[in-house]
Design goal:
- This protein is of the alpha/beta class.
- It has three domains: about 220 residues, Aldolase class I (TIM Barrel); about 90 residues, Leucine Dehydrogenase, chain A, domain 1 (Rossmann fold, 3-Layer(aba) Sandwich), CATH 3.40.50; about 140 residues, Rossmann fold (3-Layer(aba) Sandwich).
- It contains 17 helices and 20 strands.
- Strand 13 and strand 14 form a beta hairpin.
- The longest helix is centred in the C-terminal third of the chain and has 17 residues.
- About 50% of the residues are buried.
Length: about 500
Amino acid sequence: MTNLCVSLTESTTEDMLSAMRSLPNHVDMVEFRIDYTPNPDVSALCRNKDRPIIVTNRPQREGGGFEGSEENRLSSLREAAEAGADFVDVELDSVSELGELAGQTRKIVSYHNFSETPANLENVYSRLADADPEVAKLAVMANDITDSIRVFDLLNAHRTELPLIALSMGEEGIATRILSGKFGAFLSFACLDEERSAAEGQVSFREMENLYRFSKIDANTEIYGVAADPVAHSMSPAIHNAAFAELGLNAVYLPLRVKQTRPFLDGYERLGLRGLSVTIPHKQSMVGLMDEVDELTERIGALNTINIRDGHRYGYNTDIAAALDSIERAAEHAGLAPLSDCTALVVGAGGAGRAIAYGLSPKVGRLVIANRTESRAENLAGELNAEWCGLDGMAEYEPDILINATSVGMHPRVEDSPVPREMLRPDMVVFDSVYNPIETRLLREAEQAGCTTAPGLEWFVNQGAAQLEIWTEREAPRKLMTEVVKRELGYGND
């Protein structure tokens, strides 16, 4: 079983102990980072432990906060052993100077690289193993998500040998923290909260358990995720992990910041990836990496869903049906029937824009594509026998239905809008694909102008539910998924 260890960085001994006692039982261990604590009472920390503890006094050269002499630093670790610490963490370049430890205290011998993931991690592991540790620890910076693949490979290669902690730091390495249990790591580190993180990329202990169900992850856990760049503010992990829990599935859904699609997909498929949500900017580039795609994906050249089964990759697009359902119901409410009498303007010619434009094309009387890069608007319009313009040309049209299929207005740039306010009229339908926030500036101004609005929340949940049903062949809990998004965004559930 992989332990969950919370790193504590409080500034006083009393605060360290108080923070430890506040932690729930599913936190198996704590690490006292005494390099963040001026004049720590090491003996008191060890005597008053309520679960196994690691005492760490990291020097500045290894990314820590300790500024004193090396002898004083190592002396504090010896003191911790004498007082009953379960583990002390000592750096690879210092372990020979530490000497033997008193009592039953075990040594974690650690290696850190805050700039990169070294080319040959096996050499680093061998050096750690040669230092005769009870536990080896390796923490390296992931500059690309593909760096984390080598860390997983290291864990896989040595899972039956020396107890090993192997983590990728940084946003691109978050998966190594969450999936430690799948690959047999000795422990994974978490923080109290984001403001008190001891290393870049640490996830709070609450998210580790409540969002990712860390304690239930094992060798058989199936991996899913959202491939995007950026990905930090995606709501997809919240809705899909809640749905997996509701359905009783041994699966976890991760935020995956992907820059290079092919090496990422090849590497993570080998590690057990079973499915992906795909969003900006990879909806089109992923199509060529599939073995088979559905008819809609083939027509529009953009996907948002990948299902991996029996060594084959299947691509789907669930955006279209979900978006059209929201748009058509809003149009019916606004009295815009039939759609064949309507003009629709789609802002954006990327993956979502292509999907919605292809879906609307056979239904509306007139279709206009607007895009910042005019050549992309022209190309998409040419495929659909539609009209096109740049963003500065939108005001020349008076659409009945206006669709924002860009990320403009998405958190954190919530005061941006892709559409001039003057374009909005009381008889229009305005659909915004952005769901974070639920009420974007565009939707707020559209409501003020008397338009009928279709928020991206419903579209987001429905396309996500369709993805879940493709992956699991189970009915998605749509009501729960909607409630989760609203909760995550700070809204009520009604």
